[in-house]
Design a protein that fits this description.
Blueprint (H helix, E strand, L loop, with lengths): L19 H16 L6 E2 L5 E2 L3 H15 L13 H14 L7 H24 L16 H11 L2 H13 L3 H9 L9 H9 L2 E7 L5 E10 L2 E4 L3 E2 L5 E6 L2 E7 L2 H29 L23 H16 L9 H4 L4 E2 L15 H11 L6 E2 L5 E17 L3 E2 L4 E13 L8 E5 L14 E12 L5 E6 L1 E7 L2 E3 L4 E19 L16 E8 L2 E9 L2 E5 L5 E7 L9 E5 L8 E3 L2 E3 L3 E4 L2 E6 L2 E3 L4 E4 L4 E8 L2 E3 L9 E4 L4 E8 L2 E3 L7 E16 L12 E8 L8 E7 L2 E19 L1
Parallel strand pairs: 9-11, 11-13, 12-14, 13-15, 14-16, 15-17, 15-18, 16-19, 17-19, 18-19, 19-20, 19-21, 20-22, 21-23, 22-24, 23-25, 23-26, 24-27, 25-28, 26-29, 27-30, 28-31, 29-32, 30-33, 31-34, 32-35
Antiparallel strand pairs: 1-2, 3-4, 4-5, 4-6, 7-8, 10-11, 36-39, 37-39, 38-39
Helix pairs in contact: 1-2, 2-3, 2-4, 3-4, 9-10
Length: about 750
């Protein structure tokens, strides 16, 4: 028995193309029903379907579109199709696992499918079959719609729409060529190559005198004239041989003024060739090219373009370019073009790191700061409009600090490496937001505002520091890496609101347990400023991780394993005694700790202290006020029993201090709150809190209660002593009982 037309048993190679749509629809419905779940489709970053279900998904969109959309309205943007668009989208949602963000792709594909469907139907009409639609569409196109479509196809407006669509579409021979030639204009398929030769599509490569390709494209024939397709061109080599319009073997240097002139000629030439192509296609209506032999490679164009108008125009352009040499990559070109992106490489910077790029980078920054938007940020701070200084992923050696001009803001510096070389001064920083202008930009004391550094590696090469930010406001350092500093990785003085995030800092490259850890020096982050934020930062080697000498700073998510406390290291050092006002939250002190000098309004919470890392209260003037240390985790060596909070010096002025709700493993718990139960049979109960309470000989509040387990039940009792963090309760008569104590410092 012959198989049915839609039978899945029919081999793919013998199945008619007309059955493809029905087969896909059938397979999708069957799989959807069998799995009882939405079909999966993967997407790439551009929002396009990929992998095994991609073609099925796009085909399914076309099937649903042909079923839901009307063929009587060819314009997919017409509001008439709004209802059909929603029906198509709902069908996709009911069948495929897609999100709302994919709706635009689906509807765009649907529009393309409708246009192709209408075009195929119009071809069906041109073949003289007007009585009924193609057999494969009889179940989705009614007879009434078909007759209306036939009538509609003879409408002048529809004919104009079809004509415009054909003019905008690419010629089929170009599509054939593009699909079968690689980026070098070659193919390993001899059959495809023969067809390309037959229709006159020829790969062409422009060579220099050394045989290096400097441009590549295709030649094809139009009514006997050989025209060049759009070229992608680039300069390679020292001398280029260029031949165009009868100017044979002209040589131009690839450097200096003549090199710039040559580039200008190339640019003009390829633009005009493209213009000739477009003109020829319009005038010739894309005729079928005649057969010709292919040119595999050429160093010049052997056929002259027979369009005198464009030849004359090109000769005039070339003559003008030769008489007025142009510099396409001059150091000031960024400013002349009024661009908003500056590349140090255009100023002579070496992205390979083979030579010093200090002056080139300084020139690029200087030009960037000359651009303005006509607005100001803070008074006296020029708004540069978001200008970008792009290092383009280069590694630049610098022998002197990159100092930014003052009185500017709204700038982004991104994407590269700055590495110090001899004779870089050891007391300076790779990048400096600092000015010698004694008058400043305004009466606020701020010289820089809104400057962002992102995706940059600062390698100080053990010569000074990474970046210094002085008298600045709202500076951002994001996704940066600081290495080999001897002073500070980041130094901030005065100003406020410097945000440091998602960055790594270390004097030496290590992941911990370094044999040279005892010799680690320098400070990773030194903030002598107010209102700054450090978020999600790892400090892997330095004597001091973070030094805070300003008020109202906030540190969140910082991991310090810069140098162990046993070797003299400090994770976070809060200075400015009596004025600190600092919040430290969710930080990880890895074998080092936090030092607080006369802390006032300091909050430490949700931290993790590993390897005997603890908190040291250091007395400068003997004052503590508003200190909160709660909900932290401490883990250490049980043999050492290091206290989680230790006192360095004597404090005489203590107020509003809460150290409580911390959990401990292998360390000594310390708190400002104590609870203890003492059982006994007698008339005296002693509670010793000296090992628990933080401050010596200090109990401000106490409570106690007695649970009598013997006789008499009721008797007189009282606290008789509170001294050296020891509380004594005595009763009038001996009895058996338990006394519970609660004390606060």
């Amino acid at each position: 028995m012959a198989p049915k037309k839609n039978d899945d048993s029919i081999p793919k190679e013998t199945r008619k193309r007309g059955d493809r749509g029905r087969t896909i629809m059938k397979s999708v419905i069957q799989e959807r029903s069998r799995r009882n779940a939405l079909l999966e489709v993967e997407w790439n970053r551009k929002g396009q379907p990929i992998n095994h279900n991609a073609s099925r998904f796009t085909s399914y969109i076309g099937l649903v579109t042909r079923r839901e959309a009307s063929i009587l309205v060819p314009d997919w943007k017409d509001p008439y199709h709004d209802e059909a668009k929603e029906e198509i989208w709902q069908d996709i949602l009911n069948t495929w696992n897609v999100n709302e963000c994919h709706k635009s792709f689906v509807l765009s594909k649907a529009g393309t499918a409708l246009n192709r469907h209408i075009h195929n139907l119009s071809i069906h009409l041109q073949n003289g079959r007007v009585e009924q639609p193609p057999k494969k569409y009889v179940d989705i196109i009614s007879k009434e719609d078909w007759l209306e479509f036939v009538k509609h196809c003879n409408d002048p407006a529809f004919l104009l729409y079809e004509t415009q669509s054909e003019e905008l579409s690419l010629p089929r021979h170009r599509l054939f060529r593009t699909a079968r030639l690689d980026k070098n204009g070659r193919t390993n398929n001899p059959k495809a190559l023969q067809i390309i030769r037959d229709i006159g599509i020829n790969p062409c490569v422009l060579l220099d005198k050394h045989g290096c390709a400097v441009a590549k494209g295709y030649m094809y024939n139009l009514e006997g004239d050989m025209l060049h397709d759009s070229f992608d061109w680039a300069v390679a080599g020292d001398i280029l041989h260029f031949c165009v319009l009868g100017v044979e073997q002209s040589e131009f240097s690839a450097s200096g003024d003549m090199g710039d002139t040559f580039l200008t000629i190339c640019a003009l030439f390829f633009l005009l060739i493209r213009e000739v192509n477009q003109h020829s296609r319009r005038s010739l209506h894309l005729p079928v090219p005649r057969q010709t032999n292919a040119l595999q490679e050429t160093t010049c164009f052997k056929e002259h373009i027979q369009t005198s108008h464009f030849r004359k125009k090109l000769e005039e352009k070339v003559a003008t370019a030769l008489s007025k040499p142009l510099s396409l990559a001059s150091p000031s070109s960024g400013l002349e073009r009024n661009t908003r992106v500056f590349y140090p490489t255009a100023y002579g910077a070496d992205p390979t790191g083979a030579r010093d790029s200090s002056d080139a980078i300084l020139k690029a920054i200087g030009d960037a700061f000359k651009i303005g938007s006509g607005f100001e940020l803070l008074p006296g701070i020029k708004d540069l409009g978001g200008v970008v200084i792009d290092l383009q992923g280069g590694s630049y050696k610098i022998s002197k600090p990159i100092t930014f001009p003052s009185c500017g803001g709204n700038v982004v510096v991104k994407g590269g490496t700055l590495r110090a070389i001899d004779p870089f001064p050891g007391d300076r920083h790779l990048v400096e937001l600092a000015t010698t202008n004694q008058h400043g930009c305004n009466n606020k004391g701020i010289n820089y505002e809104d400057i962002t550094f992102q995706d940059i590696l600062f390698d100080s090469s053990y010569r000074g520091g990474g970046i210094s930010i002085i008298d600045s406001a709202r500076i951002r350092i994001n996704n940066c890496f600081f290495l080999h500093f001897t002073t500070q990785g980041i130094l901030v003085k005065r100003g406020h609101e410097t945000f440091i995030s998602n960055s790594f800092l270390g004097q030496h490259s290590t992941v911990g347990g370094d044999i040279g850890e005892r010799q680690f020096g320098g400070t990773a982050i030194d903030l002598s400023s107010n209102d700054n934020t450090i978020t999600d930062v790892a400090i892997f080697s330095a004597a001091i991780g973070v030094s805070l000498k300003g008020q109202a700073n906030m540190i969140t998510g910082v991991h310090c394993y810069n140098k162990a406390t046993g070797f003299g290291g400090i994770g976070i050092w809060v200075q400015l005694p009596g004025l600190s006002q600092t919040r430290i939250d969710n930080c990880y002190m890895d074998y080092n700790g936090i030092v607080l000098e006369d802390p006032v309004q300091v909050h430490i919470t949700n931290g993790f202290f590993l390897g005997d890392g603890n908190i040291i209260l250091k007395s400068i003037k003997g004052r503590i006020s508003g200190l909160t240390i709660v909900d932290n985790t401490f883990s250490g060596n049980p043999n050492a029993k290091v206290p989680i909070v230790a006192i360095n010096g004597k404090f005489s002025n203590i107020d509003q201090v809460v150290i409580d709700r911390n959990n401990v493993n292998g360390m000594s718990l310390k708190s400002t709150v104590g609870k203890l139960s003492v059982a006994g049979n007698g008339s005296k109960w002693v509670a010793d809190f000296s090992k628990t309470l933080v401050f010596p000989n200090r109990i401000n509040h106490f409570q106690y209660s007695i649970f009598s387990q013997g006789q008499p039940k009721f008797f007189a009792h009282s606290v008789t002593s509170v001294s050296n963090n020891i509380v004594v309760v005595e009763s009038e008569k001996p009895t058996k009982g338990v006394v519970s104590f609660f004390v606060e410092q």
